[in-house]
């Protein structure tokens, strides 16, 4: 029983037989408590003892302690967007403050009967027995919008609907040894509304995350060539952060004929659906026009026009696009860098040099004209293309590519395979700063295989 500060501290035990009793203090409230033996194990008591609160007639909503409890519960529920974690939080918040046990049910995706998502008991040893009992009980329909009593052994049990934004999400079932005081039921009902909102937020977040991941997968190439005689290549792609935004970086490498390949690595301004639309347009246009026989200059020019035709939805795009031909002992490349970070060539001697001139980025100037640079990769030469998630990786006031940082990293990669070079660059980006990267990252490495 909770008593206001200033009342006399009780010195006599409860009238009923108890094993242990006492008085505890919390701020301005004193709580008189008793540990009672519960009959039978049909109610999950197992003949043991449980702490039972003796509620006063005062409304729970008027008690500052319960207002703090609701505030803390809301903070905990808002702290996760994992749909599988929310039911567990609900149950562990409720037990033992409001009930001896709590079962949280959720609506199944196929509309079948409710699924038991989580079960918690103040005595963990009773959970398995309680689960067996609960499986024999019919849970009320989620269409009920008010608490509904359920019959479960010797327990006094109530089922509270979990409804948010007009959508029924499940039920929260509570059980205790004695009658539910009105204040406890009102508090549980209030908590149920907050819990339902947390469940719905987590559900919506998970759906958006799944959609974004599906969209991201659709923007990546369906595959890279299985066999590339004379060409050793590797690609790395990592979307940034944990916000599930669709990234704007992309890459591609595909065959257009015997001993001839096309490649691309690009970065669309921004993230999200609008950036994804330009990413998809770019990747599919590059492949389609290449298969139609257009050279790299014509492909980039037409892609620029296609982006401009998107109108207000258009986003500018930086792109490194080229064609690779196997000739003799090496590779001949025709390259266009449309506002993209410079491509670097590594010689077996350790010399690193930029090999293409930067031209207009795409989606800005209708009159832009493009010309291809021709580059020769001798056996052992490496060509590196990256997005600005590499060059603009920030640590304090420094960028990774300050003072030719990327070229210095590449110079350390002599005699490494394409895969080893890509991994070395990726690891350097990761280690450059403590905090996670805020930008997507794409790395493309092409290496002429030695004789």
TrEMBL record:
UniProt keyword Protein biosynthesis present = no
GO MF term set: protein serine/threonine phosphatase activity
> InterPro entries from the xrefs?
Bact_Sigma-Reg, GAF, GAF-like_dom_sf, PPM-type-like_dom_sf, PPM-type_phosphatase-like_dom
Q: Which UniProt keywords apply?
A: Hydrolase
Please provide an example of a Pfam family that matches this protein in its UniProt record: GAF
| UniProt xrefs under SMART domains | PP2C_SIG
Might you give the EC number(s) for this enzyme?
A: 3.1.3.16
Domain PPM-type phosphatase intervals? 231-448
User: Looking at its record, which EC class is this enzyme?
Assistant: hydrolase
Could you identify this protein by its name?
PP2C family protein-serine/threonine phosphatase
Organism in which the protein naturally occurs: Sphaerisporangium dianthi
């Amino acid at each position: 029983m909770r008593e206001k500060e200033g009342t006399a501290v009780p010195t006599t035990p409860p009238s009923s037989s108890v094993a242990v009793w006492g008085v505890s203090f919390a701020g301005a409230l004193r709580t008189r408590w008793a540990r009672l033996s519960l009959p039978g194990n049909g109610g999950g008591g197992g003949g043991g003892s449980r702490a039972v609160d003796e509620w006063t007639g005062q409304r729970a909503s008027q008690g500052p302690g319960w207002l703090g409890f609701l505030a803390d519960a809301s903070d905990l529920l808002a702290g996760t967007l994992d749909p599988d974690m929310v039911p567990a939080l609900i149950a562990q918040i409720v037990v033992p403050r409001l009930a001896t046990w709590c079962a949280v049910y959720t609506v199944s995706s196929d509309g079948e009967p409710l699924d038991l998502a989580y079960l918690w008991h103040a005595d963990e040893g009773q959970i398995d027995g309680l689960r067996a009992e609960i499986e024999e009980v019919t849970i009320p329909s989620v269409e009920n919008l008010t608490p509904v009593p359920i019959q479960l052994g010797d327990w006094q049990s109530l089922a509270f609907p979990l409804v948010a934004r007009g959508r029924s999400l499940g039920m929260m079932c509570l059980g205790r040894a004695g009658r539910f005081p009105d204040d406890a039921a009102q508090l549980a009902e209030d908590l149920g509304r907050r819990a339902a909102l947390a469940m719905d937020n987590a559900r919506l977040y998970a759906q958006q995350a799944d959609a974004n991941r599906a969209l991201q997968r659709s923007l990546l190439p369906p595959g890279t060539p299985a066999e590339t005689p004379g060409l050793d290549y590797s690609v790395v792609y990592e979307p940034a952060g944990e916000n599930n935004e669709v990234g704007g970086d992309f890459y591609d490498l595909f065959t257009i004929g015997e001993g001839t390949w096309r490649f691309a690595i690009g970065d669309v301004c921004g993230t999200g659906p609008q950036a994804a639309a330009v990413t998809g347009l770019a990747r599919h246009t590059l492949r389609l026009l290449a298969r139609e026989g257009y050279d790299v200059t014509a492909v980039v020019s037409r892609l620029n026009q296609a982006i401009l035709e998107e109108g207000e939805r258009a986003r500018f795009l930086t792109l490194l696009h080229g064609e690779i031909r196997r000739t003799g002992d090496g590779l001949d490349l025709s390259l266009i860098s449309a506002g993209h970070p410079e491509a670097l060539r590594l010689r077996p001697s350790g010399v690193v040099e930029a090999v293409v001139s930067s031209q207009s980025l795409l989606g800005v100037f209708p009159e832009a004209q493009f010309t291809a640079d021709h580059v020769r990769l001798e056996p052992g030469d490496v060509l590196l293309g990256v997005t600005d998630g590499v060059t603009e990786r920030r640590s304090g006031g420094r960028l990774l590519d300050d003072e030719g940082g990327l070229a210095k990293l590449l110079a350390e990669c002599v005699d490494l395979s394409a895969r080893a070079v890509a991994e070395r660059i990726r690891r350097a980006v990761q280690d450059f700063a403590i905090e996670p990267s805020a930008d997507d990252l794409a790395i493309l490495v092409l290496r002429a295989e030695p004789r």
